[in-house]
Amino acid sequence: MNFPSQRVGDFTITAISDGYLAASLDFLSNIDPSEAARIQSDAGQKEPDAVHINCYVVRGAGRTVLIDGGAGGFKQWGGLLRSNLSLAGVEPSEIDTILLTHAHPDHVGGLVDAAGQIAFPNAELVTHRREVEFWQDDGNLSRASERARNNFLIARQVFDGYRDKLRTFDEGEVLPGISAMPLPGHTDGHTGYLLESRDRGLLVWGDIVHFPHIQIERPDVSIAFDQDPASAANTRSRLLDMVSSEGLVIAGMHLGELGFARIKRTSARYGLLYETVS
């Protein structure tokens, strides 16, 4: 089975689908749901509430890296990562590093199995320091809604399971050729990863968008999952300007099954162009 892939110098990056989650267009702010539905329809999205979940495997420099772990079946979301990794020829024991964009359940649920044991026994878990601090803070937990409390419990289960292999950062290079790019707003420690090799680059931007056709055309549109919607919108606008100016290939956890794209800017409007295999 072929999975969408990009070659960036010495790195090969492969998009591995974990499946889908459902998120109502009513979760979006700064846009009327009917307008959001129109954009989805114009983009050919037959199921407007469906949000795809991507994870990425990076191979190169003697490493096998997983970026995010999918939902693992949490709330019947996703859960296809493990079987799709197998179809892609990647065994869980081969993963030596997990880079985390953030610790929402659709990104960490697949890092533990049904019994609560870590799913990638040989992997170091690498994430932003502020992400760990937020989810481990009892004050934040006490203020959380009932829905959000489950998010805390899952994040804590993952951080506890990998506690002997947990490494945190603030910014800068996290692995040779891979640098962390803090992208706050969606969560406090939300982080993208910039891969650079042989004068080529690719940015895995995490959850800059959940509904790509809507939020790339309308960067001011945030979603209820954003911890700080205004900050998330500012980060999104800044990043869209950067990647469109630089012509950088992007990868995103909710970009869609094609996994990779570029952002084009025409007449003060951004557009999404999916990339073919390179």
Q: What can you tell me about this protein's structure?
A:
The structure is a single chain. The chain is α+β, with helices and mostly antiparallel strands and 278 residues long. The chain has a single domain (5-274), classed as 4-Layer Sandwich (Metallo-beta-lactamase, Chain A), CATH 3.60.15.10. It is built from 8 helices and 16 strands. The protein has helices spanning 33-42, 81-87, 105-108, 129-136, 138-143, 146-161, 212-217, 229-246, and strands spanning 5-8, 11-22, 28-29, 50-60, 63-67, 97-99, 124-128, 166-169, 172-175, 178-182, 191-197, 200-204, 222-223, 249-251, 260-266, 269-274. The strands form 3 sheets. The chain has a 7-stranded mixed sheet. Strands 9-10-11-12-14-15-16 form a 7-stranded mixed sheet. Strands 3-13 form a two-stranded antiparallel sheet. The longest helix is centred in the last third of the chain and has 18 residues, at 229-246. The protein is globular. The two termini are 17 Å apart.
